[in-house]
Amino acid sequence: MSQLPPLAVGVPLLVAALLAVVHPLLTRTVSDLVATVTALATAVMCLLMLVHVGSGLEIYWFGGWHPRGNLAIGIDFAVDPLGAGLASLVSVLMVLALVFSTRHLEVEQPYYHVLMLIFMAGMVGFSLSGDLFNMFVMFEVLSVAAVALVAYKIHERAALEGGLNFAVINTIGAFLFLLGIALIYSRTGALNLAQIGHFLHHSGNDRVVVIAFTLIVAAVLIKAAAVPFHFWLADAYAVALTPVCLLLAGAMSEIGIFGLARVYFAAFQPALGGSAPVLRAIFVGVGLLTALWGAVMAYVQDHLKRLLAFVTISFVGIFLCGVGLLSADGVSGTAVDVLADGFNKALLFACAGIIQHRLARLSQERLHGCGRHLRLTGPLFLAGGLLISSLPPFGPFLGKSMIEDAAIKAGYGFVPALIMLASGICGAAVIRAWARIFRGWGRAHEHAEDTSDEETEAEANEAQDRTPAVMLAPAVLLLIGTVAVGVWFGFADLAAKGGQRFVDFAQYHAGVYGAHVPQAGGSSDAPKFYDYLYCGGATLIALGLAALSLWGARLSRRWNDLTESASALLLPVRRLHSGRIGDYTAAVALGTGVLAALMILTLN
Amino acid sequence: MGIYPYLVAAWLAGVGFYGVITSRNYVHLVVCLTVIQASTYVLLLSVGFVNGGQAPIFADVPSTSVVVDPVVQALSLTDVVVEATVMALLLALVVQAKKRFGNVDPDSVNRMRG
Fold it and tell me: Does A19 touch chain B (CB under 8 A)?
């Protein structure tokens, strides 16, 4: 049995501990180097796991405690293609983030490096875990590290508040997770996902199982930031250090979606599979609401990172639609989209970081036309915006077309149109930001006076004259990654096989109990003509909306009245994002209650 | 013990949520979080409780005797350790808020909105 799964989590944790101990002896450069090399080693291990497991399943039992009969007495890591793939995405993004941060002036060794490595270890551990309680522990490990990283610029009020909001809401999520674990343990006497599934297969579901599932779903949706659990995300992502944002937007939100899929397919599917149509309706509904909500909120933001944070929320909604279809196709499509859009969102945050580094600002109004001389960053940002709107035939297009095909196959014919709308609006927000900052198009200083309190401080004390290569290179690599996912169709086939393996409970259970799991079959269909229509449509919506918003006033005098009434209509929604922990907690409680009521009433 | 421990757990969670939602002081808010956390302990321990069960230490009781479930106790212990870290981190942030901005009221802030 391969020893890679425990090493991929253990090595970064060990190096983090060592760094914390010996840091007085190290210079900043050495710390950077050690952390980057460790992340690189983890990435290599995860990629090796991915190659090794193919589309099968490999189980690692800690301490060699194999199951006895039907009882899983040990704790296992279950490595499947999608889990290993997510772990690889996390560690590759971490390598790029650490390279990006080598020229960051605010980073203090060793704590930054220690936290980043723990953050990565938590996410990798979560992706590989085959045990519900172990998932909870990893959930907490990655949350604590992420909170500390978000609140890293402790002297900044916004960062401190963002960190506190993030910490409180995610801690509540952890409690919901644990309450769910306690309930499902009381019913099944098991913590191993496969064993829970096996028990539920024979016992069927009852109210306790449904409530346990609801609580766990609420917890992972808090991490993923689906409406109405999403409020903390924009406050936290907008203020975090840019390299941390790369990880937060590119991987951490996706970790929540992965947790939902893992818990459903590996543990609850045997009991709840009979009610899949109801669950599908709930998940797709929440997903679409999140996608549109995030897109509209992104469109009205002025602060660049906050805009990208809402784009992240919108895309979480699209992922939730994909996974929520509860089919192998939906899961594979989501996997491709997570990979492509993970790179893409990280690219946009990297560009935002470069803007902050060079121009010491993030408010679009204040940056109006200031970015004309950034000759490399501008095109990168525009490319990111076009890719956000799922421009065919690149990565995000491939992912979304697979999700849309799966939705149509599941009888949700209206989903593609709404996904087109959401990604179109997100794209419009990003492209308009590009036009304002890098071209100086549109009117300047419309609302400059009310943006003053929204500005976060620059990450360097003042604007720098040059963009360091260590900041540009990761951005370029991320762009290449985003494009490559779509251009090389091999990804789609890999994901299709991975999706088949992921949703197959019988094989998962057999694999955990020692049987050899064969490689999954299946291949992806090539995108159909209507996929090009939907995704091309999204790009057209993005370009058209951005242009209208920049020059609409010139076309017609009615335009201003129109935008004013639209923003008046939107005001109540914007007011909900109040920044108050109490309000956010109330939303979480309400969301959990509604979810519980829906599930208790409809699942039986 | 029947349904009572579950009612206590639900009550603790409810009260804790109420406290977090209405809190006007970060320290109070963190303490309310620990009240929600207490509900997880009560639930875990009552799930594993067996009437007349002994402590699950087989050194001095025969291995055939009735004991309470040791797994939930291990879970509670892990939970204590994990959440102690979280609470320490939260309180550290609150201390910084007090030090740098002079107050601990979640509502009196100059934050990003909308």
Answer: no
Beta-carbon contacts of A6 under 8 Å, excluding residues fewer than 6 positions away, are A60, A62, A77
What 3-state class would DSSP assign to A78?
strand
Q: What is the pLDDT of residues B59-111, one digit of tens each?
A: 877 888 888 888 999 999 999 998 899 999 999 999 988 888 887 887 765 55
Dihedral of the CA atoms A295, A299, A301, A306 (nearest 10)?
40
* Chain B residues lying within 8 Å of A147, measured CB to CB: 89, 93
Q: What is the pTM of this model?
A: 0.94
Q: How far apart are CA B63 and CA B73, in angstroms?
A: 18
Whole-angstrom CA distances from B3 to A302, B7, B9, B46 are 52, 6, 10, 9
Which of A597, A590, A604, A603 is closest to A279 using CA atoms?
A603
Q: Are A425 and A299 in contact (CB under 8 A)?
A: yes
Domain-wise residue ranges, chain B? 4-50+65-101
In a domain, A344, yes or no: yes
Tell me, what amino acid is at A188?
T
Q: What is the per-residue pLDDT for A604?
A: 67
Band (pLDDT 50/70/90 cuts) for residue A451 is very low
- Residue A430: the pLDDT is 95
- The complex's ipTM works out to 0.94
A-B Cβ pairs (cutoff 8 Å, strict): 133
Rounded alpha-carbon distances, angstroms, from residue A245 to A199, A260, A309, A310, A464: 40, 22, 9, 13, 21
A497-542 confidence digits (pLDDT tens): 999 999 999 999 999 998 888 888 877 788 888 889 999 999 999 9
Interface of A with B in 547-576 (CB under 8 A): 574-575
* Total domain count, chain A: 1
Task: Give me the helices (H) in A225-303, please.
Answer: 231-239, 242-247, 253-263, 269-272, 276-299
Residue A574 in domain:
yes
Interhelix angle A377-388/A395-409, rounded to 10 degrees, is 10
Q: Do A306 and B112 touch (CB under 8 A)?
A: yes
Contact criterion met (CB below 8 Å) for A283 and A268: no
Question: What CATH code would you report for B4-50+65-101?
Answer: 1.10.287
Contact assignment for B109 to A579 by CB distance below 8 Å: yes
In Å, how far are A160, B55, B94, B97 from B100, measured between CA atoms? 10, 48, 10, 5
Which residues sit opposite B44 in a β-bridge?
Answer: none
**Phi and psi angles of residue B109, each rounded to the nearest 5 degrees, phi first:** -135, 165
Determine the 3-state secondary structure of A462 from DSSP. Answer: coil
Cβ <8 Å between A582 and B23: yes
- Residue A448 maps to a domain: no
Contact B93 A164 (CB under 8 A): yes
Tell me which residue range forms the domain holding A109. Answer: 4-443+453-602
